[in-house]
Amino acid sequence: MACLFPYCVVCVSPEEERRVRANDREYNEKFQYASNCIVTSKYNVITFLPVNLFEQFQEVANTYFLFLLILQLIPQISSLSWFTTIVPLVLVLSITAVKDATDDYFRHKSDNQVNNRQSQVVIHGSLQKEKWMNVRVGDIIKLENNQFVAADLLLLSSSEPHSLCYIETAELDGETNMKVRQSLSVTAELGDPNSLASFDGEVVCEPPNNKLDRFCGLLCWRDCKYPLSNHNMLLRGCVLRNTETCYGLVIFAGPDTKLMQNSGRTKFKRTSIDRLMNTLVLWIFGFMVCMGVILAVGNAVWEREVGSLFQSYLAWDLPVDNFLFSAFLSFWSYVIILNTVVPISLYVSVEVIRLGHSYFINWDRKMFCPQCNTAAEARTTTLNEELGQVEYIFSDKTGTLTQNIMSFSKCSINGHAYGEVIDLLGAQPKRLDFSSFNPLADPDFCYYDNGLLKSVKLGDLHSHEFFRLLSLCHTVMSEEKKEGELMYKAQSPDEGALVTAARNFGFVFRSRTPGTVTVTELGRPVTYTLLAILDFNNIRKRMSVIVRNPEGRIRLYCKGADTLLFERLHSSNNHLMNITTDHLNEYAGDGLRTLALAYRDLSEEQWEEWSERHRQADRATDCREDRLADIYEHIEQDMMLLGATAIEDKLQEGVPETIAILSLANIKIWVLTGDKQETAVNIGYSCKMLTGDMTEVFIISGNTVLSVREELRYSNYLYSSLYPSISLFLPLFALVINGHSLAHALEADMEGEFVSTACVCRAVICCRVTPLQKALVVELIKKHKKAVTLAIGDGANDVSMIKTAHIGVGISGQEGIQAVLASDYSFSQFRFLQRLLLVHGRWSYLRMCRFLCYFFYKNFAFTMVHFWFGFFCGFSAQTVYDQYFITLYNIVYTSLPVLAMGIFDQDVPEQRSLEYPKLYEPGQLNLLFNKREFFICITQGIYTSVVLFFVPYAILSHGTQGTGEPLADYQTFAVTTATALVIVVSVQIALDTGYWTAINHFFVWGSVGSFFTIMLAMHSQTLFSIFPNQFHFVGSAQSTLVQPLVWLTIVLATVICIVPVLAFRFLKLDLKPQLSDTVRYTQLVRQKTRKPAGRCMGGVRVGGVPEGRLGARGGFRRSGYAFAHQEGFGELITSGKNMRLSSLALANFASRHSSSWIDTLRKKKHSNTHPPQSGSGQKPHSNSTAVVQT
């Protein structure tokens, strides 16, 4: 059978369509639909061990160490006991297994709790209790108030009037406001189990998919077909609210429900350090193989030339019968011995450090918001160091930079502007008291212009019609718990603000039914017949209602974006439109969100004709949305302009300072918003993204491919002509581009030009962009720039951007928690971003880099001693150290000090990190750990191994004890070398640690003490007498460490290893200090002098920035479009159902050479991103607007 709903399929499914017959399990079971039992757990008691081990050995590191363990079990090639590898491997596997088992236990617990919930199912005319897991497709379920919806249900009937029911969808989309659903009128009378038991309707619908906001289907019953939409559905995970009872038919159950279809895994993100480590580990493995080959060749040569002389009394062990086979076995033996250059403890330590950094973020009280009682949360532990390398921030505007708490600020009615209150004496304007005029007024509403209230009181017809429109043209739900106490449930803060304004000015929206809207107009209740709602969507950018007043007059009311609405006005409105446009420009200059309002009177004949066409389009089974859009377009013409509204969305606290500081850290900030260009630009100025001393602001607003290309090339020409002329400071540019132009700029043949232009700009503002475009812009920068990106937003429309960026940050704000659920980090205020990056991010990057540098150093110093020893032991794969020392070196003797450094270390205090944002730049340039730093670390480690081997070898080979006996024995040499190694690496980490805590002291010196304690115990007579075959170094430590010559050797080796490091660091500090060195020196100087007032950012002291209202600016400003609620609620109801501030320049607070190394690298990096000059050398023609700031 052909699929009836091809246009609705969202994800791949084996079903083409679903057929469900009510109350007929036998029929429905033929299709083998999934049961309502859900399983989110991964294991059971039988499968846990094999499946978990299989998953763990998918990791290359675990497989590698398992391979080494197998090699160690072969006695012919292993000179180390198997436990040197199996102990750490089993430890790592066990810890991971316990963690996985704990997580899965909670999943089992959650599954059992959900599956065993009770539901009431209609069976043979009566209600019977069934567990959720036993509910089947086709069952009819009764739901009661505050109950969770058990499966995806078709709503059949409800106890509420007009068969409405109210649901909360927080578990689905994070939205806490109530939504409304309604059943079909033909099933509304099925309100009791007996009538429901005889219901035999069949539903034909789309197959299971993950689209939460769409459902397509038909109900076939009594030889009629009724179209079904998402407004008739109750989805699993919703909660029934304010509805006594309702009944629903199960359409999708268990894993087929939309909730479960949306529970896919989030894409795993890896840091640049992780990717570099994978490369370095491969290099190290190759290096180890090369060393093994060299030593194996040496073994072959030695066995042939020298070893053959001993065959008569020291024959080869079986199965070795020639020197080549001996070399082959020697190679694998050295692979085992040299594997400690990359120990398994490296991966464990990295995860422990990241976990510690995540807890520091969670525990940071300075990122806690007391107003909303929300703390910062690190929702992942794998990306902390990446926070110290961010170069691009992509931010939403509304709710992220602004508060998303809307307030009615100004308006224009019939050419008269209201809302601007100026007191010539400078006194604070007095807030209007609405209570005496309107007992139903909202006491929290704040307004100051008495002229508007007078206009309403005097009976101005235009003012009355203005607020009447606001009280009728919306999808707000009203709840009145007791007389006069109204609570509005709005789909967006904008709508709530407008309806509340109308309420205070005497036009109070009281209630609605599917066919009526009741309003109290200046104390008189009026009920309007709601004929149609022409719903909002992102293409129409407007909504309309058609109502009939009690006198029978039919009128269409419309509100929407001025650019679209003005095109549909009657020609007689031109003069009023020009005046209103001027007002809109002023409002946009203040950074306000605006809407235009209009109406149209309809005759009965016009309404009847349009209504019939609307019914036909509404019943269409294909292209329904397009047909409805055409019908809406037909009626929304020749309208009369009423005026415009202006809503204020205030900036969040600390946004300007945060953006200024992040800009000083050379972080480029892009704002991706759905708001209009002019509003976004003014917000850009108010939050200091755009500043008065910027060299130029490029405006890209072309509507065709050619015009956008020409504007981009013109911007490139301006940049190229200005860049060489500025020698002391880099010019500051910004770019503003709208959604239409961006669509062309993102095309494959133009994206390169767009990136080259945008990336030389300090700030970029993309206006009128869709959620998909937000993700595409982030993906574009990831593709063309080797830079770390961060996306931050607060709404569902930011989820794709958050998931696409390297790091996603969610703000828990007014638009639900979808952004938080999709994010890697979350908090409640944008201002916390500076602390997340400049403090936690920079410290995490610094600590991880220092940890890795030291870790590779100490392990090369430890392992390479075996390589040098091979040339003196006949390449026999004999180890230098005692096997217990080899096992404990990375687990006990050196693990805790490096962990303490990796968790607690810091170069400068947190307040200095915020005062000097330039400290952040080494992370962006990846200076602290890269291939060059890696080779320096391993070179130092190899140098240390040379000293640790050859100094004791040279001294002890000719040394004697006080009794005259020689010291040149293997065990004495092993103890001396091991002791010198532990002391040298402990002194080295003491030098590397920049911030000492009690924990650091305890771990560093405690590790040295534990080494001597364990070694003396291992070499004691007691353990030898108990385990004579395991402890072969009996008495070695005791006899070796009492020799003065041994201690002289250890001290000499330590000095030779450490003195060059100290000399190099002192010279580097004196000749080429890093910025952090200069900051530490500056801090010492400050402590000896008075503390200056104010705050220093990048060397410049600045005071606070007043938050206040956004200052007006003229020029190219236009109105900002404010409309943020979701599409679809109109159909549901009618179915019955900114202060421009100077930028902060970084002063030369340090000597000129202190940051020259960063500047040099920065210039090299920028030289690769400068856009090419115009090939002909001619200035290209452009229609783009360039705003030059002087």
From TrEMBL:
Residues reported to bind ATP: D396, K397, T398, E495, F536, K559, R593, T673, G674, D675, R768, K774, N797, D798
Cofactor(s) demanded: Mg(2+)
Domain (P-type ATPase N-terminal) ranges: 20-86
Xref: Pfam families: Cation_ATPase, PhoLip_ATPase_C, PhoLip_ATPase_N
Active site per UniProt: D396 (4-aspartylphosphate intermediate)
InterPro entries (UniProt xref): ATPase_P-typ_cyto_dom_N, ATPase_P-typ_P_site, ATPase_P-typ_TM_dom_sf, ATPase_P-typ_transduc_dom_A_sf, HAD-like_sf, HAD_sf, P-type_ATPase_IV, P-type_ATPase_N
Reactions mediated catalytically: ATP + H2O + phospholipidSide 1 = ADP + phosphate + phospholipidSide 2
Keywords noted in UniProt: ATP-binding, Lipid transport, Magnesium, Membrane, Metal-binding, Nucleotide-binding, Translocase, Transmembrane, Transmembrane helix, Transport
Ranges of Polar residues composition bias in the record: 1169-1190
Annotated family: Belongs to the cation transport ATPase (P-type) (TC 3.A.3) family. Type IV subfamily.
Topology within the bilayer: Multi-pass membrane protein
GO molecular function: ATP binding; ATP hydrolysis activity; magnesium ion binding; phosphatidylcholine flippase activity
Entry's localization field: Endomembrane system; Membrane
Provenance organism: Oncorhynchus mykiss (Rainbow trout)
Bilayer-spanning residue ranges: 80-98, 280-302, 322-348, 851-872, 884-904, 934-955, 970-991, 1003-1024, 1044-1067
Name the UniProt record assigns to this protein: Phospholipid-transporting ATPase
Ranges of residues in domain P-type ATPase C-terminal: 820-1073
